[in-house]
Amino acid sequence: MELETARLCTMCAEVTGMSGAGIMLMSGDIARGSLCSTNSVSALVEELQFSLGEGPCVDAYKDDRAVLEPDLADPHTGRWLAFTGPAVAAGVRAIFGFPLQVGAVRLGALNLYRDSPGSLTDEQHADALVAADIAAQAILVLQAKAPPGMLAKELEAVADFRYVVHQASGMVAAQLDISVVQALIRLKSHAFGNDLSLDAVAKDVVSRQLRFDATTDGSDSRG
Known about the structure:
Blueprint: H1 2-16, E1 20-27, E2 30-37, H2 40-52, H3 56-63, E3 67-69, H4 81-89, E4 94-102, E5 105-114, H5 122-143, H6 153-158, H7 163-176, H8 180-193, H9 198-206, E6 211-212, E7 220-221
């Protein structure tokens, strides 16, 4: 199964003539994890979007439309302030996000990047839409095997779902009496503000070395 999902990302990159591709699975407003990526740069792109909560996949999923940035190093409109620097440093020059959706079911987003700036041609854009549709259909077929409310075992086995982050989000949500989405935002803000990885902060929360205190406006306290 892992080989098949890797081929899915490779297919998306090849048919569109991109340098790399990744697929982010999402539900609600939360990025659940990366299903696949074609190389170290696309893996970093997925990691940044998961940890920072911003980027083309996040916007494509939320807005239900293609998000196109032909020149990430010199964009016409500044966006993704935390995401852009590390992505450019890794070699991303153009980046594009396409929602993965089958009917009313939204599954995540396809990320495509190129190591040189430039817009997609009409043919590349059309090919990207087809690739996103094929990827969405393939994921939906796998997910159809799962019980209601559960993730398909095939997807769970290959995707990087960062369970510690989701567990920590639930704990912070309980500590502050807020939604899980809001708790994840607090975790990400704390990680970014303290120059820590999201995983490191989440592990501290789960191990009870770090606790968020509502009386200090969401800042943390260590027990």
